[in-house]
Amino acid sequence: MNTPDHPRSPIKVSVDRNEVNTSSPGQLSVVVSESSVAVFWKSNPLVIATRLQDGLISLKLDLRPVGFNIYDDAAALHIGSNQFTNNAFINAQVAFQLG
Predict the structure, then answer these.
(1) Which end of the chain, C or N, has fewer beta carbons within 10 A?
(2) How many domains is the chain partitioned into structurally?
(3) Which residues touch 25 (CB under 8 Å, ≥6 apart)?
(4) 11 domain-assigned
């Protein structure tokens, strides 16, 4: 599924339906606005990215609805039993690899 980007959005979205392992087609949806993008599984928000200003994006992540124990909250980014706080990843292509 390729989702057209909002013409003025700095956030680009491309989801290849063949890469989404699902037995229930149509359960994944992407919503794009001028300053944000959200990915939903059924009615559960998995990722919400919002541009607050140039160079500053707020990211909300919760992959638990699709079986990964990866989420964030006010305290930390949680990946499995690990918690990450006050970290910066600059020019990173892969910050974490699972599997």
Answers:
(1) C
(2) 1
(3) 17
(4) no
Bridge-based pairing of strands 56-61 and 70-72 is unpaired
Specify the 3-state DSSP secondary structure of 86.
coil
Amino acid letter for position 42: K
Please give the residue range of the domain that contains residue 49.
Answer: 17-84
pLDDT in tens, 7-31: 454 445 555 555 545 455 668 888 8
The two three-digit tokens of residue 1, written as one number: 């599924």
pTM above 0.70, yes or no: no
